[in-house]
Specification:
Blueprint lengths: L4 E10 L5 H9 L10 E11 L4 E5 L6 H8 L7 E6 L3 E5 L10 H11 L4 H15 L14 H13 L5 E5 L7 H16 L3 E5 L3 H7 L2 E6 L2 E7 H17 L2 H27 L7 H17 L4
Parallel strand pairs: 3-7, 3-8, 5-6, 6-7
Antiparallel strand pairs: 1-2, 1-4, 8-9
Helix pairs in contact: 3-4, 4-5, 7-8
The structure holds adenosine-5'-triphosphate.
Adenosine-5'-triphosphate (ATP) binds next to β2 and α2.
Length: 302
């Protein structure tokens, strides 16, 4: 079967340099010179998703779930590798793509236009979006004054009315009241019946087990399991039960140890890639050559 989403050897590297000068140096030398070492928030992830699949993404805090959903929702681009989506994607995350300074009405228009809807289509769908979001008169307020639940409701209402083929739901259901969550779940089920592809980011193995046919477990930047939902959700639930039985201090120590390992692996990759003795000087020498050449041109020496 042809895939709906194909992710090939994708990594997301964060530039950890703080000052503008260090960031620029790292940028212009293609990462060869840096003060702070880069961080691989996701490392060499590959998977394929078939049309109509509902994929649950689980993992501890800081494992890389939101980074992956941002990549799938095309809010950011991979640092390495390739993502191919056959169709349009729409992301529902708290705040995803919403402009804090604009009102609810303005955000509806902006996001719908970004998803390729015409002014006429937006006018036709506006009342449905407003009704689904349950925001009533608050829709005319800037969304910076909204609670996280209100933002999530607006984000959800807009996303489901933009006809996406691929829907990415990032923790949108963990805020807000239960009645609204149930309404969203009904809507998601309707999307599933229509054969749409769904990614569902959640901390809850139970929710993933109920909603998805496939699952992936991301652990500190690595994809450690992907396949049929129930066995993975069960395995993750067992891990979480064990984790929660640990003392607060042991949990912190575990997270610290994992993060240190993740940073060590990031260092290993960057060292291998960027610290080949001669190669590391090529970008800076080329830039310097270009600079000298342009100065000579300005001086009419050629
Ligand atoms: N802009 C950034 N710059 C540097 N590091 C970042 C940035 N965004 C995220 N990270 C780091 O990348 C890793 C993955 O973060 P991400 O938010 O994707 O995890 P998550 O699994 O979604 O966590 P949570 O469940 O808490 O939302 C974390 O170590 C985080 O600190």
């Amino acid at each position: 079967m042809t895939y709906k989403v194909k992710v090939e050897n994708v990594s997301k590297i964060y530039d950890m340099n703080r000052s503008r000068k260090d960031k620029l140096l790292s940028l212009f030398t293609f990462g060869h010179f840096y003060k702070e070492k880069p961080f691989y928030a996701l490392r060499d992830i590959s998977f394929e998703v078939e049309p109509g699949d509902s994929v649950g993404i689980v993992g501890l805090n800081g494992s890389g779930k939101s980074t992956l959903s941002d990549l799938l929702g095309e809010a950011t681009v991979p640092s390495e590798g390739k993502i191919t989506i056959n169709g349009t994607s729409s992301m529902i995350a708290i705040n995803a793509g919403l402009d804090q300074e604009l009102t609810g009405v303005e955000n509806i228009k902006k996001k719908c236009l970004m998803h390729g809807l015409s002014e006429k289509q937006i006018d036709e769908r506006y009342n449905d979006i407003l009704e689904f979001s349950e925001l009533d008169d608050f829709i005319n307020q800037p969304i910076k004054s909204y609670s996280s639940g209100m933002k999530s409701r607006l984000g959800f209402a807009i996303a489901i009315h933009t006809d996406p083929d691929v829907l990415i739901i990032d923790e949108a259901l963990s805020v807000g009241d239960e009645t609204f969550s149930n309404k969203c779940i009904e809507k998601i089920k309707q999307f599933q019946k229509e054969g749409k592809t769904i990614f569902f980011v959640s901390h809850s193995a139970k929710q993933v087990g109920r909603m998805c046919n496939k699952a992936m477990w991301i652990h500190y930047g690595e994809l450690i399991d992907y396949g049929k939902c129930v066995p993975i959700a069960n395995e993750y639930a067992r891990f979480i039960t064990k984790f929660q039985k640990m003392s607060k201090q042991d949990q912190l120590d575990y997270k610290k140890e994992m993060l240190t390992k993740q940073q060590e692996k990031s260092d290993e990759i960057s060292t291998k890639k960027y610290h080949r003795p001669l190669l590391r000087y090529i970008p800076i020498v080329s830039l310097f050559g270009l600079f000298v050449y342009s100065v000579l041109l300005q001086l009419n020496i050629f």
